[in-house]
Fold this protein.
Amino acid sequence: MARLSLPQQDYINEYGPHVSDLPVTGWLSKPEPDAMVKTHCCFCGMQCGIKLAVKDGKVIGFEPWEEFPFNEGRLCPKGVKRYMQTHHPDRLTDPLIRTEHGFRKATWDEAFDLLISKIKSIQERHGKNAFSMMSGVSLSNEKSYLVGKFARLALQTANLDYNGRFCMVSAGGGNKKAFGVDRAANSWADIPKAEVIFLSGTNVSECFPTLTHYIWKARDNGAKMIVVDPRVTPIARTADYHLQIRPGTDSALGQALLHELIANDWVDHDFVANYCTGWDQLRESVKECTPEWAGHICGVTPQLIREVARVWGTAKTSFLMHARGIEQQIKGVENVLSLINIVLVTGRIGREGCGYGTITGQGNGQGGREHGHKCDQLPGNRDIENPAHREHICKVWGITDEELPHKGKTAVELFEAIQAKEIHGMINICCNPLVSHPDTNFLREAVQGMEFFCVIDFFMSETARYADLVLPGSLHEEEEGTSTTAEGRVVRIRAAVDPPGNARTDTSILLEIARRLGKEKLFSYKDNEDIFNELRRASSGGTADYGGITWKRIEDEMGVFWPCPTEGHPGTPRLFEDRRSFHPDGKFHFHATPYRQSFEVPNEEYPLYYTSGRSVFHYLSGTQTRRIKFLVEKAPGPVCEMHPMLATKLGFQNRQIVTVESRRGTITVPLQITEGIRPDTVFVPYHWAENLAANQLTVRALDPISKMPEFKVAACRVRSATKEEADRLRADWKNLSQEALA
Ligand SMILES: Nc1nc2c(c(=O)[nH]1)N[C@H]1C(S)=C(S)[C@@H](COP(=O)(O)OP(=O)(O)OC[C@H]3O[C@@H](n4cnc5c(=O)[nH]c(N)nc54)[C@H](O)[C@@H]3O)O[C@H]1N2
Ligand SMILES: Nc1nc2c(c(=O)[nH]1)N[C@H]1C(S)=C(S)[C@@H](COP(=O)(O)OP(=O)(O)OC[C@H]3O[C@@H](n4cnc5c(=O)[nH]c(N)nc54)[C@H](O)[C@@H]3O)O[C@H]1N2
Ligand code: SF4
Ligand SMILES: [Mo]
């Protein structure tokens, strides 16, 4: 069935998003619950410990889990409200099949029959790889591992990729090049022990609120703080040094800092000589990269760069963190490496109070990038093209090398192949690309033209509306499993309740599809713990080694850090204490990062930088948080942040409705005038869909190594909205009061 028209309006009305205000019974849940289930927040990579209150088979509230060592009971607004999605009226409770008149409820048998017949038909006509899979790392470790095996052995396709391609892959690419391993090098416990905190491209206070506590502890101990961000984020406001750089210029800054460290001999020569490779080329590469050169590119003063180099260079301990601001660029990997170089040159790694880490974004963004979700990866963070790695996995799975597909397409390339009619079908679990993929107008066209599209979700996501078949899956709190936090700590996710109505656990859906594809033998598990135990064997000997981690250990020890090769091994909160990287030569590898321009830079026609990111009140594509009243009231829709100088120049007033235009699309939003942004840049949060999607404007250009799209840099212009556009905004954003838009 081709989807020629937009999703059925009546269906949207029936299935939401409705904003729910289920009774909130306060901090401590009443009436007295039957059970308090110790688990973790389903949202960001902090994976804060939380206790869910269960009564009569329903989640009725939460309590802080004060004993859990990372967050000690602290939670952010999303964590506090997350339990309100469990029994939300919008939950999908039956399989849905698209008909000419919209979706109709179907039995599981009908749904599976349709899916299997479509998979077979497409693969018979176009080959195995013409059916693809997209996945997401809100899924547990067990589900992530299962998806990797399911796509390769049940669907028999090479074309599996995941939403970490929009999130963690540039960090992973940089980390693997420098360290041979893809994990934050330290647990957060090292943050308060550092003399200098360096944060680049991360809005920590809004995106990782509970991590901020560790930064405050460092500040209490006298640490200096350096922040690099084109916006004055809440954390930047408190920094000693804020480098408010032009979007897309991070590697120039990194090179100039390195230049200064070398010029002033703030270099740990012993560490560089004994434990690193590539020093001569690196030193040579920054010879000309003076603070004057970088200051010009980055739009900050050379003095500030010198000052920051001095603070970093003369410190004894430090902790550097970065997130998507530097990673979601066509130079994501280079930006990451340019900062790792600074860490390594000063030898500040593998010791107490000397730390480095990318701040992983999604709930299981760490575990999900280790177990074979990626198109080029096998479990244990193994390489799908490495014969020895393939051999290990073939042994664990009981298959021959011929039965194991090779590398497939990365996420954006996969959707491009769908649009080019090279790939004709997809199962999408746990991803909402209609909101989160760059250039959503392109994405919509690609998805609409696909022959068969199946989505597994617990809400009718904007992407699910374009599906031929929607399968109702399960929430975090409905399946047993594990997750790996941004620190590399494997934690236990507990099932508090069962999926509602006829919804099923994600695992049981995948296992049943595998069975109906005749692959039952390869997928016979007793339970999710059995899947974890196979994952342990599969990861064993890889860099992300879970061999010695058991569910019981995780519970007894409140989390175990990988690598943990044997059951007697204590786990590894701090990597590299032996001063060895994970590369075969044991060395840390320097890489030169010559500066190059972003894909699109402002010109006369599109004179401004366009960048996007997050609000504290919403999570990713918003499917989950746009349904919770408190969060919607706090942040009802996207706005365009603009500096007062630019607003004056363009003749705009605060809250005026404006239209932001790029070469790919437009978005009409209220203007939010703020001094917290560079005057040459505008920022729009991206949690909304269709006409309100920030990604209508973004570029599909990719980092050549990581294939990460450049979400953070595009060129745009801003004008007053037409009456038609403003009316459409009012219709789209129903709860936006008329006064607010006056
Ligand atoms: N509230 C909330 N928290 C979340 C999420 C959420 O959706 N909502 N999502 C989670 C996930 S999956 C992720 S990946 C993380 C993201 O966490 P972050 O990366 O911290 O958040 P972003 O808002 O994407 O971007 C961070 C900052 O990068 C800045 N920036 C933009 N362009 C540049 C640039 O060229 N250089 C530099 N140095 N900075 C730049 C932006 O101004 C922004 O303040 O958050 C996680 N936590
Ligand atoms: N412009 C712009 N775009 C961006 C970014 C940006 O900064 N700017 N950031 C990017 C980043 S870092 C990320 S991580 C992506 C995220 O992009 P997406 O992966 O599209 O975001 P999610 O909201 O996590 O989508 C997950 C979908 O899966 C469902 N889901 C969640 N958990 C489960 C589960 O356990 N089982 C099942 N079956 N379904 C589940 C949710 O209901 C939702 O519909 O967006 C990227 N897009
Ligand atoms: S910081 Fe992240 S994991 Fe913790 S409560 Fe907030 S969203 Fe959940
Ligand atoms: Mo992310």
